[in-house]
Specification:
Elements lengths: L1 E5 H11 L14 E7 L2 E7 L3 E8 L1 E2 L3 E6 H9 L5 E7 L4 E5 L4 E5 L16 E6 H11 L14 E6 L4 E6 L3 E7 L8 E6 H10 L6 E6 L3 E6 L2 E6 L8 H4 L6 E6 H12 L8 E7 L2 E8 L4 E8 L1 E3 L3 E6 H9 L5 E6 L6 E5 L6 E7 L9
């Protein structure tokens, strides 16, 4: 089997799916890309058993064939070659792959393509079409709050809920919860799935900068994404997602409105002086003033600042993990944010003070117990 392809075109396609390939896979063949040639089209597959990514490009080839090619050495070779046609000559009996370029010849050993796991086919599926920029935004707004605790598998993915008039993305790690809802994407039926963190991370890095339509299909066990010449299949997390709506407090009589950048900058400065284990910062709200303070008793470090805000409610004092607040504030685009509170031991709700008509962002953060110092 023989084919000719542009080195830069092939490199671009390999890099787009290379994130799937792991260093120590369960099955050694997964350290390879699966190359399949059919009627002048080269289909390349990468898989880790849970997630598979497939891409295609046209090549000069007179015959069809399949081979598993080692991912790392192939990528490293192509990265260091100038843009030029490269000829692949494959011996299907010994699985030897030879690359010929203007610079020289390179020989590497492939493996039998029949050992490569089959990519699941998503049959009898539900489907929806989502603009790529909206999908990328939804992933960006939620993925940082996904849990890494393997003992709670449902929370290691993003919960996607389809309704008649909206689509909702939810992520939580038990300390904070993100709910991102779009009203300009909807399906005729209701369904919910949990997409693993790795699959959405790979998808986010692969989505093109220019707007395109992403087709999403799913059944009870797998989800299938396709756009341009890229396809991705991932196994869904087969667990029951926590009832997140019940966690969101409804009665929040104390409402604080403040400039997002001022609050973010202040918390970043104050958190330098917080305890390195708890990262605790204290918010004391009285009248139209917000006092932010932190201390680290082990090193006698402490800091406090005062900000002007709009506040409607009773004076109160509440503690939060500074790292969570910083991450959440960084993921809000609005100039002004609203913080809704009930009591010092109940979750606070952080959101833009005014939402776009097509989207709704709600961030919930659990408080930390204050160790009372004067």
């Amino acid at each position: 089997m023989k084919f000719i392809v542009s080195s830069s075109a092939l490199l671009k396609q390999l890099q787009s799916i290379n994130g799937v390939v792991t260093n120590n896979p369960v099955v050694p063949i997964l350290e390879n890309f699966l190359f399949e040639i059919n009627e002048g089209t080269l289909t390349i597959t990468a898989s880790d058993l849970e997630t598979s990514m497939i891409t295609e490009l046209h090549v000069e080839a007179k015959e069809n064939g399949r081979i598993a090619a080692p991912a790392r050495i192939l990528l490293d070779t192509l990265k260091n070659l100038p843009d030029q046609p490269v000829t692949f000559t494959i011996d299907e009996e010994t699985y030897t792959i030879e690359l010929s370029s203007a610079n020289g010849r390179y020989k590497l050993s492939g493996e039998n393509a029949t050992d490569f796991p089959r990519v699941p086919v998503v049959r009898g599926s539900n489907s929806i079409e989502v603009p790529s920029n909206l999908l990328a935004r939804a992933i960006n707004k939620t993925i940082f709050a996904v849990s890494t605790d393997e003992l709670r598998p449902a929370m290691t993915g993003i919960f996607v809920q389809l309704n008649d008039n909206n689509i909702t993305f939810v992520a939580t790690d038990g300390h904070r919860l993100l709910r991102y809802r779009r009203f300009d994407v909807a399906t005729g039926n209701s369904a919910s799935i949990i997409i693993p963190r790795k699959a959405f991370t790979l998808l986010k890095s692969t989505l093109p900068a220019e707007p395109t339509t992403v087709r999403v299909e799913f059944n009870n066990s797998n989800a299938f994404f396709s756009f341009d010449n890229i396809r991705m299949v991932c196994r869904l997390i087969d667990e029951r997602y926590p009832d997140y709506e019940n966690v969101i407090p409804v009665q929040n009589p104390n409402k604080l409105v403040i400039d997002r950048y001022d609050l973010l900058s202040s918390i970043k400065r104050i958190s330098i002086y917080s305890n390195k284990t708890t990262h605790q910062v204290r918010l004391r709200i009285a009248g139209s003033e917000l006092h932010i303070s932190a201390e680290d008793l082990d090193f006698s470090n402490e800091a406090n600042e005062r900000l002007t805000c709009q506040y409607d409610g009773e004076d109160m004092e509440i503690g939060f993990n500074a790292r969570f607040l910083i991450e959440m504030l960084n993921n809000i685009d609005a100039d002004e944010i609203s913080l809704e509170l009930s009591t010092p031991n109940r979750a606070g709700l952080l959101m833009p003070s005014s939402n776009d008509e097509n989207e709704n962002i709600l961030m919930l953060v659990m408080p930390v117990m204050l160790n009372n110092y004067v």
